[in-house]
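User: Batch of two.

Assistant: Item 1 of 2:
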Amino acid sequence: MMRNIIRATTAVFLLFAWMISAGPAMGQTKITLDGEWQFRIDPKAEGQAQGWPKALPDGSETVQVPNTWNVGKYEDYEGVAWYFKRFEVPREFAGRHLELHFEATFYRARIWLNGAELGSHDGGHTSYFFVLPANLPASNFVAIAIDNRPTDTSIPGLALRLRGTGNLWYDWWHYGGIVRDVWLSVNDSIILRRQHIRVQVQGQDAQVTDRLFLENSSTHPVAVKVKLRTRLEGGGATPVAEAQTSITLNPGAQEAELTFRIPDVRLWHFDHPFLYDLTAEVQDSEGRELDRLADHFGARTLEIKDGKLYLNGEQVRLSGITRHEDSPWEGLAETRGTWSRDYVDMKNLQVVFTRPVHYPQLPAILDYCDRNGILLVPEIPLWQFSREQLGNPEVRALAKQIFREMVDEDFNHPSIVAWSICNECDIHTPEGMEYAREMRAWEKSLDPDRFVTFADDLLPSVTDPSKSASQYADFLMWNQYFGTWHGPENLLPGVISHIHATFPDKMVVVSEFGVAGIFAPNAAMADELRAKTIREQLAEFAKHDWIAGAIFWCYQDYRSHRNLSRGLTKGYVAMGLVDENRRPRPSYDAWREANSPVRLQIDWKYDTEYPYGPVGFTAQVARRAADELPSYALHDYRAVWEVRDAENEIIAQGEKELGEIGPPVQLEADFPKRSANSWNLRINVYRPTGFIALDRELTWTSPRSGGEDSNEMRQKGTFPAQPPILSTSPPEQRP
C-alpha cells in the first residue's frame, strides 16, 4: 500500500514521538507501533485477574517488537505472555476512524485497549485488525495476552496422526509473540480496504479486472469517484492504462469492479519478472482524495496439459528449496536482513519454485519473489492432522478463516501459482476427503484462477483415485523420503510408476525430499547421504516427464522438538544445505551443481606452432534438455569470462549476450601468446535478473620439464588464489 507513515519512538515508560513523512496528502495515515514494548510472561495465567489489561505490571522488561519470547531465556516457554505499550493519539486525529493492525501474532491473542477488550484472534501467520472506539483520549494503553500452546483444534496444532509415537509436537518451534509489524491506521469515513487484481492474457494484450473492497464508516451515503492508473515498473511515469467510475457508497462494506486493457503486455516469468503498479484512488464529488491504495501485479499464463506444466506457453520443469522462518538470533520474528540474505543465497542456488514452508509468509518475502522470480505454493499449517481433526467443524472453520486471511492479503502476487490446504494429514479418509472437497470449493470462491493442492505423504498407498482426496487437487504434491523414513531408496522407481499408474492424468510435484541427520552416525556421513540423494533422486525424477518439479527440504537447519538425535527433546533438525548459522555443508555445492539450468563445455585452444600454452578457448553454452530436471527455456542470459595467469593477473576478459539458447551458443576467444606456468579460465553465466546460473573454471598447468603441477604450486604458495565471482554484473537485489 502507499500510505503516509508516522513513526513512533519510545523512551522511559513508552513516551511517544511522531512525525509525518513528506509527500502528498492521502486519505489514510499509518502510525507504526513497532519498537519498544514492555513484556512479561504469565505462567499461571493470572494477569487478567490481576488487572494487567489496565496497567503495566511489576517485573516487566523491555523488548523490541517484532518479537518472539522464544529466543533467549524463555526459549522453551510455552504458555501465556503479555505485551504492553502506551501511545499518544495526536489531537488532529480526534474524531477520525482509527484501527489497530497486527501483521501476525503467534498464536492465540487477546487484545485490550485502556482496559476494555477489543477482541481476539487465532492463527500465527496472518494479519488482522480492530476498529477502535471513537474519540480516544490523547494517551492510550494497549495490552496483549498471547498463548503459544498447541491444542487439538489450533492450526498448527497437536499432531494427532502421530499419537502412536508419544510426541504430538508439530515439526517446528513454538515461537510465541508479536512476530510481525504493528500499526495504527487513521482514516476519514471512506476506506479502500483492498483490491483483488485478476489478469487474463489475450494474445499480445491483457484484460485486467480490479475488484475493489470499500467501506463507508459514516451514517450516510457518500458519492465518490474511483480512479485506476497502471504503469509498467521501470517503464517511466506514463500510465499504460486508466479506468474510472462513479458510485454511491452506502454505510458499511461495498464492492466495485473496473476493467481495463493493457496493450503489448510484458509477461511475468521467473527470469523476466515484469511487474505493473496499479494505484486506486477514491475521490469525493469535488475531486478531493479520500483514500488511495497501490499494489503490483504481473501478467502470465500457467497451464497444466497432459501432466506437464507450461508457463507463458513454454514447458517448464522446476526445482527449489523450502525454508523455515527461523534463526537462532530472531526466531520467527525475522528482520529483512535475515530473510533477504537467505533468499539471495537461494536464488544463487537456482531456486525458481518452492512451497516456501508450512505457513503463510511475510508479505515482504512475497514481494521479493515477485521481483526476483520464484514461483510459490503457500500453505496453511495443518500438519499431521488425524481424521478426527479434519472432521472437526471447529478445525474446518478455523482453516477457512486462516485460508481467507492468507488469500485476501496475498491475492495479487504473480509469484503465487497455487494454494495448499494441508500437509501430511489423514487426507484419504472419509473425513479428509470431505475436508479437501470443502476447502477446494472455498478456495475457488476466493480465487477462481489459481490451482489448489495439498502436500501428501500417502500417495503410494492410494489404489483407487475415486476414494482419494487427490481428486480434489489440480496437481499432486508428494512428500517422499525414500532412503530414510519411507524405506530403501531402491523402491523409489517402482513407487513412482505406481503413482503414475494410479493417477495417469495428474501432474506431480515432489514437494519434499531430503535427508535428516539422524539417519547417519555423524554429521559428515549424513551430508554425504544428502548429496547422494540430491544427485540420484533428481536424476530419477527427471526420467518421468509428468514430474514437473522437485523441492528439497530444507535450506537451513531449524529448531524443533522432533527428529533429533537420540536422547534430545529440543534442538535443531539437521536437514539443511546450511546449518542454523548459515554455514554451508558440502551438499550445498551438490545442490547448486545439480540444479543449474545451463550446460557448459569448455576447451582450450592451442597453436601447433606455439608450444608454450593455450592461445584461447572455445565453449558451448546449452540449456538442459526436456528429459532433465530442472529444464526450461533460457532467454537473455549472459556469459562473462576472464583468464588469469599464475600471478593472478587478468590477461584477457570478455562477455557475450546469449540471446535465446535453443541450439547451443558458441563462445570463443583468443588471448595474447605469453609463457606462464598456469592459466585459469573462469566463466560465469548470469540470469537476466543478475543472479548466477552457472560458474565454471578450467585450469591449465605447464607440462614442460621442470614445471610444477598445481599441488606443488599450492605447497609453495605460488598457485593463484581463488578469484572472486566476477563482479561485472552483481546480482540485482530488488527490494
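Item 2 of 2:
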Amino acid sequence: MPILTFIIVAVIKIALAVFVLLTAVAYTVWLERKVVGHMQNRWGPTRVGPFGLLQPAADGVKFLFKEDLTPPHVYRPLFIAAPMIAVIFAITSIAVIPFGNALHVPFVNYPIPMQITDLNIGLLVVLGITSLGVYGVALSGWSSNSKYSLLGGLRASAQMISYEIALGLSLVGVLILAGTFSLRGIVEAQHGHFAGFIPNWFIFRGGQFVAFFIYLMAAYAETNRIPFDLPEAETELVAGYHTEYSAMKFAMFFMAEYANMITVACIASLLFLGGWSGPIFGPQLLQDILPLVWFALRIFVFLFIYIWVRGTLPRFRYDQLMAFGWKFLLPLAIANLVITALIVALRA
C-alpha cells in the first residue's frame, strides 16, 4: 500500500473508531438508565427526544457548560491530569482491537483491515494500557487532599491490582490453546466447529468456561462495577475518589469507566466467544459488514449482562471483595492454568 494511502486510511480509521467508541459510551449510559429503570418499574430517560435518545447529548452539553470548580486545597497539576489520564488510557486500548475481516472499498486497491493497527502482541498491549488507568483513579484521590477521596483512591489501587492478577491468569489458558498474542490470530484459531455443530470457541474448549467465569468476575472488579464498586461506595465514602470533581472533569471518569466496559466486552468476545465469527452470505459488501454485526451483537449482550448485574446484586463488603479475589478467584485461575497446560501437553 502506498504510504500516502496508508496514512489517509489510518487517519480515517482512527477518527471513526474514536467517534464510534465515544458514541457507544454515551448510549451505554442511556441503555443502563433505561434497563435499570424498567427493572425498578420506572421509565428511565423519556423527556429528551423519542425514547430519551437525545439524553446523552443533553448530558454532554450540561457537563460542558457547568461551572468547573477546583477546591483551593488540591494539588492542582495532578488534580487536573488525573481524569485525563483515566480517559486517555481507556480510549487508547481500542487501537489494537480488531472488529472484523478486511473491508473492500472500490476506490482502494487493497483490502482494509477493520482494525487501526494489528500487533502480534495485541493482547499484551491492551492489558498494559488498561492497567495504567488505575493511576488516574489513585492520583485523583491523592491530589484531592481529602480523606474520603484518598480512601477511595486507595481502595481502587488495592482492588484493581488484586483482580488484575486473576484476570491475567484467566487469559493464559486461551493463549496456550491459540499459540499467539495477536488478537486477530486468537479469533482465527476459533474458526470452524467441533462435534459437528458446536462452535470452536475457546469458551467450549479445554475447560475455558472456568477461565471465562474468572475473567467475567475480575472484569467487573477492574471496571469498578457493582457488586465490586467499592472505590466509589457512596454509603461510606460520599462519592469516593471523584468527590471533589465537577463538570467535565467529573464526566471524564465516567467516560473512562464505560469505555473500559466496552474494551472488556471486546476482549471477552475476541478471546472466548469467537470474535466476529458467524454466518456470512450475500454480496461482497454484506460479507464485509456481517462480521462487524456479529461482533457488535456479542458486545451488546456482554454490556447488557453488566447492566443486569448492576440492577440485581448488592455491593460486597470490602473484606468480602478482597477475600473473593485472593482466596477464590486467584487459586481457581492457577488451577485452571495448570489443568489447561496438562491437557495441551497430553494431546501433543
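The first helix runs from residue 3 to 39.
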